[in-house]
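thread from #wetlab-drylab

HS: before we spend reagent money on co-crystallization trials with nicotinamide-adenine-dinucleotide, can we at least see a predicted complex? here's what I'd submit
DV: go for it
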Amino acid sequence: MIAQPKASHFVDGQYLEDASGAAFDVLFPGTGEPIARLHAATPAVIDAALASATRAQAEWARRRPVERGRVLARAAQIIRDRAEALAQLETLDTGKPVQETRVADWPSGADALEFFAGLAPTITGETIPLGGDMVYTLREPLGVCVGIGAWNYPSQIACWKSAPALAMGNAMVFKPSELTPLGALQLAEILVEAGLPAGLFNVVQGAGAVGAALVTDPRVAKVSLTGSVATGQKVYAAAAAGIRAVTMELGGKSPLVIFADADMDSAVGAAMLANFYSAGQVCSNGTRVFVERAALPAFLDRLKARSEAIVMGDPRDDTTQMGPLISDAQAAKVAQYIATGHAEGARLVTGGTVQGRFVPPTVFADVTDDMTIAREEIFGPVMAVLPFDTEPEVIARANATPYGLSAGVFTRDISRAHQVIAALEAGTCWINTYNLTPVEAPFGGSKLSGVGRENGRAAIEHYSQIKSVYIGMGPVEAPF
Ligand code: NAD
């Protein structure tokens, strides 16, 4: 099983290798087998990527938006034409079941390319009348943008960042996670095939040091990171030195609030989606499941039965519903959290036995707000269920976290649903569903979970800047 790309990097429209960069293996999480060997970018590769992006961007920005959009739309179509092969590769790179990678990862990336392709020609400025004189505004690209990805949705992240960037006339240098470097190279190939001029989307490989070198380069106008809060704090600080624009898509510990009047089957299904999809490696997961006390026994019964029916196994198998975690290190971290859950007095309802990188759907009940598993992002399939009694109480408890990525509420009471969501401190919210992230809707977090938004029209603001132009219509009146 080999998924060796033609070379480690993609710069100026073609694959590029520099074997003097530190070698690293890409492992298939399903078996731990190496599937590719790559080299981290050297300073020469980083420089070549930024130089070609800088060269290419000026001409791209002058193109009509409709032409830029046409290239992105073609890329979306190529992704759809190759859907099965791309899904298989994503499964090798991430260990996520092919059931998921067929419907979630590249399809969502193609949606982003298609959405921003259509949006590009609709972006206009405004005219501001001043009783004779006037001002008009232009929405201009930022220049060279750096994208840095996490390992949980590597190809989706590459598309979500590059699509609005390129649509607005920017260039992008993208560094995937060192654990999942393969999808972004496919995207670079596809974009060139779709007609994107060389240099506008470059991929350089490596770990944090390569990302850090990109963030501080004077040629870079903007940095968009998807990663942990700890990395976000470092990258935001480094970007601040050059007053660079940032988008930060970081971690969370999001609340999902289930009232007793909710459709309980849907609420259970949503709680499972919010904790077990992608083996729990989803930033917006609703990992603190608050259940109104009256509904708790029924909720836990159904949750246990349905969780125990989940098929865990080789992610390449069509019938597998849950695969392994990304790495031994991540599985060890999750196993440690499970041990801490036991030690701090939470009651295990199901799961809990970690075998290698495979962690079964795990549910803890009787969780209290001060327990470690209720406070820290685990990034694995571990759900904490917390009982509550009143609406004001659950709102206060749900907000008692430094994170603010997502939140959800289940109730049949329409007023209560809107009131609770209005009171929850989170950037991306759901009522009577969870974790749906269509490209049409802005996505992102508040508090420690991030700044800026991806997707929707909102993303355009984060890949462009406004120039305002004052037009004098009469003689200049100077006081001297
Ligand atoms: P991570 O923070 O370890 O790494 C993210 C990326 O940053 C990687 O490409 C890494 O190489 C790079 N990096 C690390 N140090 C750097 C530095 N000093 N300068 C520049 N780049 C650096 O995150 P991860 O473990 O890959 O991903 C999991 C985390 O990502 C979780 O916390 C999860 O919640 C978060 N996440 C957030 C979103 C979102 O949209 N909000 C989506 C997916 C994942």
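DV: The longest helix spans residues 98-119.
HS: ok that's useful, forwarding to the group
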